């Protein structure tokens, strides 16, 4: 397939103004004749998997996919809004799932995919992040990831431990590991973003116990410091710190050193995202099958599940000339055949959010551990996918409570104050 990868910026805007009167451009007519779809992607995203699926789609249908690039980040978001306002958007748009989606006015700009048959196979946790006013607008562009506990299965077996499903059982395992002379829980707070995992991974339990927490949190009607289900995560930091389960040098330990400890078995449990399997696979290939994953436990009766980081999405522009072709493209992309092609060319960080889609045979076993949570619908999206409110200083706040500088209540209150600053900057109602 001959592909055209375009540097997309002023080209679209120039085209927009030239044909703003509604007159069809010569380029558009040519694309219709040749059955060419355009897919707009930010320039930081790996294209390997998407291009492989697009190639296969062309082989089946004769419909080409032309990749157009835009800047990423805030600059790219502003450009997207400008293009949508002009009415000359690409047929397919790759963009974030979650809290940034409503800013693109999906009801006005994107095709409603709610009634598509494939939606029955897509994880509810993912669909929540592309739903606006009860309508689903996106399909998953890649695999998911999850936050929880990466653990050394070889050491677990040597010590006769079982995967815990409650926080008390997790603490009991940690005591056995500590008594065996190993680091029970790896802390790598020198890279302070890693300190957030207890807090972020606990959101599954917040969502299950207080389903409207994110909505009320966004409206300044719910707080971490006053909602017991949300506050619980900060107490987990305190317990781990007081019982001495972390490595003594956790404030000076880096993420890379944490992975080394986990692979060697010197450290046995590491609160982390599953994207770490890519680095483990690259740096410790002989130990990769020793590493497993389980959801961060909680003591709420009957609840055990994983907080997931959902994939970005592909949306279909509803006001273009090729909507029907784009719908065919989307059908193929999320089909078992399409996802099989994608997964063979782009390594997964976690399960796909489409039921029945198998991961490749060379997928790390730890990532396969995630499948049961998806298959049993025991997942919930991380808070950042369902609210624009997030504490900018969250890493520092988590380091403080995780090292005993702050109490759980004080840390939660500080987190709330930090979110207030950001919410006011975003001009959110209720703040």
Walk me through the structure:
Mean pLDDT is 89; it is low at 1-22. This protein has helices spanning 10-18, 26-34, 48-61, 73-86, 106-109, 124-129, 153-159, 167-179, 197-201, 203-209, 213-218, 228-242, 255-264, 276-283, 323-333, 336-345, 365-368, 371-375, 394-402, 408-425, and strands spanning 5-7, 36-42, 64-70, 92-95, 131-132, 135-136, 138-140, 145-152, 183-185, 267-273, 291-294, 306-309, 313-316, 379-381. It is globular. The chain has 20 helices and 14 strands. It is α/β, with parallel strands linked by helices. It has a six-stranded mixed sheet with strand order 1-3-2-4-13-7. Strands 8, 9, 10, 11, 12 and 14 form a six-stranded mixed sheet that branches. A two-stranded antiparallel sheet has the order 5-6. Helix 3 packs across helix 16 (336-345).
Summary?
The protein has 20 helices and 14 strands. With 431 residues, the chain is an alpha/beta fold. It starts with a strand and ends in a 6-residue tail after the last helix.
How many separate helices?
20
Helix content estimate: 40-55%
Structural category is alpha/beta
Rg, Cα atoms, Å: 23 Å
Quote the distance from N terminus to C terminus: 52 Å
Number of strands: 14
Oligomer: single chain
- Strand-residue proportion: 5-15%
Question: Regions with pLDDT < 50 over 5+ consecutive residues?
Answer: 1-22
The largest pleated sheet is described as: 6 strands, mixed
Strand order within the widest sheet? 1-3-2-4-13-7
